[in-house]
Amino acid sequence: MFKPLRMKKIGLLLKNPFAVLSDKQILLTGVVAFVIGVFLAFQFQIQLQILRINTLKIPNLLEVVIGHLIIIICLTVSFFILGKVINKKTRFIDILSSVLISLIPLYISLFQNINGFLSNETSKIENAVKDGTIYTQTPPFLLIIVGLIGFCFFIYYIYLLFVGFKTATNAKKIWHYLLFFVILIAIDLLTSGLINSI
């Protein structure tokens, strides 16, 4: 009896943590995750962006912190404004918590670069593209597996961001969802250059 109930709660937590945890728990978890995420990004030398990662640039701690703050601030402000358009009762703290929680899968995916694995493989691919040998090479099996796992975490990140936004704003219409994804892509394009220039 205990195990099924516990597994069910974990399932609900993964499906929609915003409906299971209290506001304080969500915010606290998000803040703790942010601190850990900054440490991991610095440790594994990965520059996070909203819809991509940069493994070829080696960021220092200040660059990592600023990059993370740009991501959180831009996502939070943009979706808060959209949230106010959809529902005037949208709270800033709910959007902020949604953004912080959604980044957790991205932080976990940083382990792809243990011992510089992802950076080395990305560098090899970039060199192969430059010298034209990319067409004669077969991608390493391990890179494919790691890439698929990373992609799953990325999809879950987008899912949590969407569910958090939907919960915070009570969005229900198709145009609400379309605007969410349009703004997400637009923010990524606008901030990627800014983050890369740090």
Going across the major beta sheet, what is the strand order? 1-2
Largest sheet: 2 strands, antiparallel
Strand content: under 5%
Radius of gyration in whole Å, from Cα?
18 Å
Structural class by SSE content: mainly alpha
Order of helices and strands: HHHEEHHHHHH
Indicate the low-confidence ranges by residue numbers.
none
Helical percent range? over 70%
Q: With helices defined by DSSP (H or I, 4 residues minimum), what is the helix count?
A: 9
Number of strands: 2
Shape from CA axes?
globular
Mean pLDDT: 89
Kindly report how far apart the N and C termini lie.
53 Å
Protein architecture, described:
- The radius of gyration is 18 Å and the shape is globular.
- It is 75% helix and 2% strand.
- By secondary structure, it is mainly alpha-helical.
- It has a two-stranded antiparallel ribbon.
- It starts with a helix and ends with a helix.
Short summary:
The protein has 198 residues and is mostly helical.
Write the layout of secondary structure elements.
Blueprint: H1 2-15, H2 17-20, H3 23-43, E1 47-48, E2 53-54, H4 61-86, H5 92-102, H6 104-109, H7 117-131, H8 141-169, H9 174-196
Antiparallel strand pairs: 1-2
List descriptors.
198 residues, mainly alpha
